[in-house]
Amino acid sequence: MISKIPERWDGVNQVYFVTVVTKEREPIFTDDANCERLLQAFREVYAYHHFRLAALVINPDHWHAVIRPYPNIVIETIIGAVKQNMLWKVWKIQKRQTFWQPRFLDHRLRNEEDLAYHVNYVWLNPVKHGLVERPEDYRWTFINPKGLG
Ligand code: NI
């Protein structure tokens, strides 16, 4: 019997591993207020472009997310809106121009194993970048215990 591709892995329910980097690697997320602004940007964008977030880590100069857009919403729309939303929050306070690198990197996840690998990658990322010795000590890592459910 040919194994069936789970519905969630078809084009409509595609899951992505996304990396967004700051312009010239400026470490803007060493400021906790900026981490809070990014989280708030995700919450606000969710109100009009729905998605499921399985994992997120905010490092000083980049962030990674494992995310599944809802049907009929493309990943570029969500990530673009999050970047724009946070830019606007900072502009209102500091009147500064963009602090994002243009565009972003994404990788389409193929299956459950690929999902598990990338969620674990997010969890261990602060250790990989030398920010903490134990992943549980990093404040800005979020793993959804329900995965994408
Ligand atoms: Ni990283």
TrEMBL record:
**Pfam families per record:** Y1_Tnp
- The protein, known as: Transposase IS200-like domain-containing protein
Q: Where is the Transposase IS200-like domain?
A: 11-125
What's a single GO MF annotation on this record?
A: sequence-specific DNA binding
Biological process (GO) annotations held by this record are: DNA transposition
Task: Return the SUPFAM superfamilies for the record.
Answer: Transposase IS200-like (SSF143422)
Extract the InterPro entries matched here. Answer: RAYT_transposase, Transposase_17, Transposase_17_sf
Report the Gene3D superfamilies cross-referenced here.
Answer: Transposase IS200-like (3.30.70.1290)
Give TM regions: none
